[in-house]
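TICKET: design request
STATUS: open
ATTACHED STRUCTURE:
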């Protein structure tokens, strides 16, 4: 019977065959312990000299790390293993012998590991992080599908900027200038006017010269957009969504969280509603905390966000930022035109901003004014303004950065480990 490591608990006391790689091994005179992986999980295979053929035992003893095989044996319960099961090996059929695998069980520097990312992905820790990433994606689709959203895919090649013009990747589109998408938002607004509630999930690009543990050049964003939803209603959707994702990861990634030694007590507390503080209040809080030189009107950096987050166990919404430091499309607060109806959601434990969202301007004249103030031109000018011309409605949306969310839930401190092949300031390889 051919099966996988993750399915093997269904075959207790039965003999099965698994296609696997050798992650690590240890042996003494009459017994060899093989750490096996097959992509679905990790299991220990025990080869006892007297219970297997001489050929199988010699193979087990001499096989190199990352060699591939079909391995056959009986699945038994084992309380000492984190997985709970092991295989009593009776036969090994070698598929391919690996030689001098560069990533050995000893310590390696980060740059070395990043250069070998194509192999590093096989390791237990990277495997756990990617499984958590996958669960965040899966539960995202579940949440939005269950709540009546339609998945809409915005284009990646665009003729205009969505989030300011300084961080655009330029490319040629035959004879025209084009850019890689910084955000699908403008297109999602069009989609919301056609489908009511929509969400996207796709890659976005920022030619940002930032070299921090929170910045990638290419990252993945989930962007919901809702017609007839105001700013406060949008915050409620955001906290429901984030709580759902956190609880899904806790429920479905127990093994991965334990491999990563994540403190799950902190995650268990994450439940809507989340606290909200205004930008004004955040400035006061920062001054109290000794950030003397921060002035009203300045944007927050990572140290500011971390200091504010320290006051809360839940993620915290910082709302109503000054219009000047936010994007052109955000709706001014009707009671106070110097601030806009927006919020950034700051994760606890120093993981920073995971969501940026806002209510959008729905008035045609005001939108034209903002376009001009921001010196924006380009093809979006026409079509985006037309959304305000034909049945304009109040609408809101937000973008959740997948990699920062993976970093937070996995407890890894740099986003380079949260995406299979990170694009960083100095890295396009592998
Ligand atoms: O705050 P941002 O720039 O918002 C937008 O792009 C809006 N158009 C979204 C919308 O309303 N539809 O980005 C949203 C999120 C951030 O909160 C952050 O989590 C993530 O995307 N993000 C990055 N993640 C990794 N590397 C970068 N360089 C990122 N820039 C933003
Ligand atoms: Mg932002």
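STATUS: resolved
RESOLUTION: sequence designed for all positions
ATTACHED SEQUENCE:
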């Amino acid at each position: 019977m051919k099966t996988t490591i993750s399915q093997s608990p269904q075959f207790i006391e039965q003999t099965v065959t698994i296609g696997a790689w050798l992650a690590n091994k240890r042996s003494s005179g009459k017994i060899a312990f093989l750490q096996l992986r097959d992509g679905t999980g990790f299991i220990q295979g025990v080869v006892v000299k007297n219970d297997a053929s001489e050929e199988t035992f010699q193979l087990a003893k001499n096989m190199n790390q990352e060699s591939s095989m079909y391995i056959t044996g009986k699945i038994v319960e084992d309380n000492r293993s984190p997985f709970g099961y092991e295989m009593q090996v009776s036969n090994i059929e070698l598929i391919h012998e690996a030689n001098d695998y560069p990533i050995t069980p000893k310590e390696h520097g980060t740059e070395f590991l990043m250069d070998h990312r194509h192999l590093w992905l096989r390791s237990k820790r990277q495997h756990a992080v990617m499984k958590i990433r996958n669960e965040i994606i899966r539960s995202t689709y579940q949440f939005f599908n269950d709540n009546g959203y339609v998945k809409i895919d915005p284009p990646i090649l665009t003729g205009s900027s969505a989030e300011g013009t300084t961080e655009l990747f330029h490319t040629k589109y035959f004879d025209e200038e084009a850019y890689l998408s910084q955000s699908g938002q403008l297109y999602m607004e069009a989609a919301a006017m056609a489908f009511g509630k929509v969400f996207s999930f796709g890659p976005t690009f920022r030619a940002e010269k930032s070299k921090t543990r929170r910045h990638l050049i290419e990252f993945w964003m989930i962007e919901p957009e809702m017609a007839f939803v105001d700013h406060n209603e949008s915050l409620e959707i955001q906290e429901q969504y984030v709580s759902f994702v956190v609880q899904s990861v806790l429920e479905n990634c127990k093994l991965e969280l334990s491999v990563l030694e994540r403190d799950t007590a902190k995650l268990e507390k994450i439940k809507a509603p989340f606290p909200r503080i205004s930008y004004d209040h955040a400035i006061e809080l920062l001054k109290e905390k000794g950030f003397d030189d921060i002035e009203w009107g300045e944007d927050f950096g990572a140290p500011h966000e971390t200091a504010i987050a320290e006051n809360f166990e839940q993620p915290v919404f910082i709302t109503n930022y000054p219009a000047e430091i936010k994007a052109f499309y955000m709706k001014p607060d009707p009671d106070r035109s110097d601030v806009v109806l927006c919020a950034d959601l700051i994760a606890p434990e120093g993981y920073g901003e995971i969501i940026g969202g806002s209510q959008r301007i729905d008035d045609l004249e005001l939108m034209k004014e903002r376009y001009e103030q921001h010196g924006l031109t380009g093809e979006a000018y026409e079509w985006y303004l037309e959304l305000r011309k034909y049945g304009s409605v109040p609408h809101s949306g937000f973008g959740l950065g997948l990699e920062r969310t993976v970093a937070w839930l996995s407890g890894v401190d740099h986003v380079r480990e949260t995406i299979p092949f990170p694009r960083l300031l100095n890295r396009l390889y592998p």
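CLOSING REMARK: The pocket of 4AD (ligand 1) is lined by residues 162-163, 183, 185, 206, 208, 215-216, 219, 221, 223, 353-357, 397-399, 401, 403-404, 415 (CB under 6 Å). The two ends are 37 Å apart (CA to CA).
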